[in-house]
Amino acid sequence: MKRIFPDSFYNLITLAGATVAAISFGLIMFLIALEFFSEEQKPYMGIIAFVILPVILILGLFLIAVGIWRDHRRERSGKPHGLRLPQIDLNNPRHRTAFFYFSFGTILLLLFSAFGSFKAYEYTDSDEFCGTMCHSVMEPEYTAYQNSPHARVGCAKCHIGPGAGWFVRSKLSGAYQVYATLFDKYPRPIPTPIENLRPAQETCEQCHWPQNFFNEKQKKFTNFISDEKNTKWNITLLMKIGGGNAEGGLTSGIHWHMNIANEVTYAALDRQRLVIPWVKSRARDGTERIYKSTEVIPTDEEMALATTRRMDCVDCHNRPTHIYHPPQRSVNQIMELGWIDRQLPYLKSLAVQVLEHPYTTRQVALDSIRLVVDSYYKTNYPALAVSQSDKIETAIVELQKVYRRNYFPEMKHDWRQYPDHIGHMFAPGCFRCHDGKHVSDDGKVLSKDCNACHTIIAQQYENEKLKMSLEGLAYEHPVDIGTAWNEMNCSDCHQAQ
Ligand code: HEC
Ligand code: HEC
Ligand code: HEC
Ligand code: HEC
Ligand code: HEC
Ligand code: HEC
Asked: pLDDT tier at 102 (50, 70, 90 boundaries)?
């Protein structure tokens, strides 16, 4: 056989290296062509073509070099006179061919790896990479994200953002995460909050800046009570969002107070920042006030372990996109939309119950939801179970969809592990500080007044007259619990048990 390369090329290591390099190069080319010509997205292709195969390719090239080097050393070992580099004689046709192949190949590879590293960079920043690469690990975050107001904002926009520093930091911690995933060393559920989340000023404020929210925003909540008739109860709130800028002047409201004029700092005793013994506000004019809880009085040791933090967007909007809805809320929503029929007796109560049961896997959950709902109506309402069987079937299917969007038993993710700080219904939220029990030395109380953050402009029980007032109504709790709704936090009863 005629040999085109110098003899030193023909050793086992080099040949093996060349084969490996050639095959991976061919595969990469093939995958690139495939990506070029096909329209749909293929989740794992990018990582194979731009991350894994190039590593194998480089390994192959390295083996080629090692093989040649070893060969020369062997050849040389008989000769006593030091260094001898291989001689390249361009008049020798074999050397010429080898030189041509090698230079051409190297240039091609350099170009290619420049392109490859760019693609690798681009790829590791894509939502596809973040959301599906470690499939089961990120599935809850990815699913919740796809159903959120930020579904079109890339993961990297909030978690990495522009700038080399954060890029390097995120790729370093990312490398650890890849290791943790491969060796199954990650915690379930994934701990929240993220300790080194990029500061909100550099992420959220790229798109939303606090000077820009002056409007009050009307929010209507429709609720169904857990009785036989699934009785409806509506409340409409005017959220005092607020804001302020140089042109329009300062307005009062939630954002203005928290972020532009004031600097609010607080201490938290627990990792999730739910227990807050004191909070300090510093107004524009420099006056400071410290509000201390009259209920949570930590010991010195507890205080030493507490973390202090300057409040920013994610202290209220901690779930802007990975939103796991509590069952009451999602069932209220699909019932209001008519996706499940509220003529089915006790459906609200039953739905919340089947969604909340702790299941071990998703499949078990989906099967149990069907079984329990089906047999509930067969046992308690046999005539209806026959006449309304299609509505019961629809309800089952819709509840299974709610389950899929909001519960991830394999990862132990759902609303209970990820309390949302906006509001105060299912988690302490605003009432971590505004519980009426945080008092300053001069006697000022962080207000829990029901019309401080929102004005209750309308309330209505089904079949009763609509009550409306622009000044704010006195709150009526949908079922009679005396004045407990005012004395306790809503989440004391409505939080998961
Ligand atoms: C709108 C901004 C935003 C986008 C877009 C976003 N995240 Fe997040 N992410 C957050 C915030 C805020 C937190 C919670 C931070 C906290 O509480 O400290 C978070 C938390 C997480 C956590 C920690 C566990 C948890 O649920 O608290 C993971 C994992 C995560 N995000 C992955 C992703 C992935 C994957 C994507 C893209 C599919 C993504 N994020 C897109 C803002 C975002
Ligand atoms: C790349 C731009 C971008 C970034 C970064 C971003 N958002 Fe948004 N945000 C949007 C868009 C777009 C919407 C949808 C606006 C709409 O529906 O009117 C939105 C909506 C919202 C809403 C209203 C949601 C609702 O229910 O209507 C909130 C609250 C919010 N973002 C908070 C945040 C927070 C907190 C962060 C930082 C963790 C953040 N955003 C980062 C673009 C962004
Ligand atoms: C004190 C808690 C708190 C802080 C801090 C806070 N927000 Fe809000 N934000 C709210 C509340 C409450 C609403 C009312 C929305 C609702 O009820 O859904 C809101 C509404 C919004 C909206 C929706 C506005 C609209 O017109 O729909 C955006 C966007 C938003 N916030 C972004 C931010 C950003 C960005 C930051 C950080 C600069 C921030 N918020 C800081 C509590 C807060
Ligand atoms: C970490 C503690 C803390 C949390 C959590 C918190 N706040 Fe506050 N809030 C404060 C402090 C401190 C003040 C400033 C009181 C002062 O000194 O006047 C304040 C003031 C306000 C004011 C102005 C009240 C007034 O007297 O004019 C509004 C409105 C408000 N907060 C809304 C909210 C909303 C809505 C939430 C939940 C989304 C929330 N806050 C969560 C600490 C907190
Ligand atoms: C510190 C500010 C603040 C105070 C004080 C406050 N709220 Fe709210 N409330 C909120 C915010 C913010 C939301 C919006 C939650 C959301 O957008 O999902 C809310 C939502 C609600 C809802 C709708 C809950 C749901 O999910 O169905 C009701 C009802 C409500 N508030 C009643 C009250 C009552 C009653 C009081 C007085 C005991 C009160 N609020 C005091 C901030 C406050
Ligand atoms: C002492 C316990 C307790 C407290 C405190 C409490 N609730 Fe309730 N709440 C109940 C009970 C019991 C029901 C009836 C159960 C049902 O219908 O699902 C209920 C039902 C509701 C419902 C209708 C059912 C649904 O799931 O939509 C809403 C809305 C509600 N409460 C809001 C609040 C708000 C807002 C607060 C705080 C201001 C609050 N509750 C405080 C016990 C409580």
From this structure: confident
